[in-house]
Amino acid sequence: TELISNSIKHAFPGMDGGRISLSLKKTDKNIIYTFSDNGIGLPGGFDINAIDSMGLKLIFALVEQINGNVKVDHKNGTGYVIEFPGNQ
């Protein structure tokens, strides 16, 4: 929910529309949640290790609690890949 609301609030300023994509897949051992939008992307110099956003901090804390990891891609819009063990 946090990722969707961030995209709606920040990804598409002045644009008539945009695309938000979600996928969830299970591998033999893990669950992979992928989120992306085709908006303006993250600000230049964005450092995932120095985030100020309470919402993003919450996402990273929750993923850590389930022994997962988050990868961020901000080349074409913004994307997150959250992977965590599927046996929880």
In percent terms, what proportion of residues is strand?
A: 25-35%
Largest sheet: 4 strands, antiparallel
Helix/strand order: HEEHEE
Helix content: 10-25%
The coarse silhouette is: globular
- Overall pLDDT metric: 90
Separate helix tally: 2
Please give the radius of gyration in angstroms: 13 Å
- Strand pairing plus helix content: what structural class? alpha+beta
Strand order within the widest beta sheet: 1-2-4-3
Residue windows where pLDDT falls under 50 for at least 5 positions:
none
The overall strand count is 4
Report the span from N to C terminus.
Answer: 21 Å
Q: In words, what does this structure look like?
A:
- This protein has 88 residues and is of the alpha+beta class.
- 24% of the residues lie in helices and 32% in strands.
- The chain is built from 2 helices and 4 strands; from the N terminus they run H-E-E-H-E-E.
- The protein has helices at 2-10, 54-65, and strands at residues 20-26, 30-37, 69-73, 78-85.
- Strands 1-2-4-3 form a 4-stranded antiparallel beta sheet, covered by helices on one side.
- It is globular and about 45 Å long.
- The model has no long low-confidence stretch (mean pLDDT 90).
Could you give a short description of this structure?
By secondary structure, the chain is α+β, with helices and mostly antiparallel strands. It has two helices and four strands, in the order H-E-E-H-E-E. The longest helix has 12 residues, at 54-65.
